[in-house]
Design a protein that fits this description.
Structural class: alpha/beta
Distance between the termini: 31 Å
CATH superfamily of the largest domain: 2-enoyl-CoA Hydratase, Chain A, domain 1
Number of helices: 12
Radius of gyration: 19 Å
Helix content: 40-55%
CATH architecture of the largest domain: Alpha-Beta Complex
Strand content: 15-25%
Largest sheet: 6 strands, mixed
Shape: globular
Length: 258
């Protein structure tokens, strides 16, 4: 895609890289950008050759938040009626694993977007925050819910109520980030993590993601029940037969995604 696009897509199966492309606005999440992003991710989700997607910004910013000018001009009813929630739900429901590659600012809606991904790989320059209360509003795309689940109530309250910004290493220690690397390696490391994910059985990966997510949405008994049934379903897949046979035969498995 040309640089006039708000989202750039690079396919290198089995991994794709999707990059937010509003550098002059630090990749602020305008309605137009979010529409392009959802369209790009949905398209890749339907591509059987793509088994993991890296979602990235640029070196200065993953995304510095929502488009404040758009928000300031909107009414409460317009926000309620607009397709904003549907966009976020569409990203959350993708079947393909998502790795967020974060360098620089990751604030507000940008932090919320990173948290919708399955894991976050961060440059040591990355900075995470939910500063919305300083504007008289609150996080509205999962920031209060996913952040509390990721870092715990105390730190989530600190970030939301005081506007505290976490460094990459603070975010790693708190459980928000999975990996922190040097500033020159952030995108390369995210691609590497995506390659590791893509190399494993697609059916099992999808079921495992659902099971881990379920741990934050249900009680332990319900979560264990879901995990057990997901295991049975994975075990019934052709990929499980292939993976187990390949291990016994000391060869590399060839996944069929079924």
């Amino acid at each position: 895609m040309g640089n006039n696009h708000l989202v750039l897509v690079e396919r290198d199966a089995p991994v794709a890289v999707v990059r937010l492309n509003r550098p002059d606005a630090r990749n602020a999440l305008s309605d137009a950008l979010m529409d392009e992003l959802v369209a790009a991710l949905t398209d890749l989700d339907g591509d059987g050759d793509i088994r993991c997607i890296v979602l990235a910004g640029d070196e200065r910013a993953f995304a510095a938040g929502a488009d404040i000018a758009e928000l300031a001009a909107a009414t409460a009813v317009e926000l309620y009626q607009a397709p904003r929630v549907a966009r976020w739900d569409a990203i959350r429901k993708l079947s393909t694993p998502l790795v967020a590659a974060v360098s620089g600012w990751c604030l507000g809606g940008g932090c919320e977007l990173a948290m919708t991904c399955d894991l976050i790989v961060a440059s040591d320059t990355a900075r995470f925050g939910q500063p919305e209360t300083g504007l008289g509003i609150i996080p509205g795309a999962g920031g209060t819910q996913r952040l509390a689940r990721a870092v715990g109530k105390a730190l989530a309250m600190d970030m939301v109520l005081t506007g505290r910004i976490l460094t990459a290493h603070e975010a790693l220690a708190a459980g928000l980030v999975a990996r922190v690397v040097a500033r020159e390696a952030w995108l390369e490391e995210a691609r590497r993590a995506a390659g590791e994910i893509a190399a494993r059985a697609p059916v099992a990966q999808r079921l495992a993601r659902e099971a881990v997510d379920r741990a934050f949405e249900t009680g332990l008994d319900s979560g264990l029940d879901f995990e057990r049934k997901a295991l049975y379903l994975a075990f019934a897949s052709d990929d499980a037969r292939e993976g187990l046979s390949a291990f016994v035969e000391k060869r590399r498995p060839e996944w069929k995604s079924k």
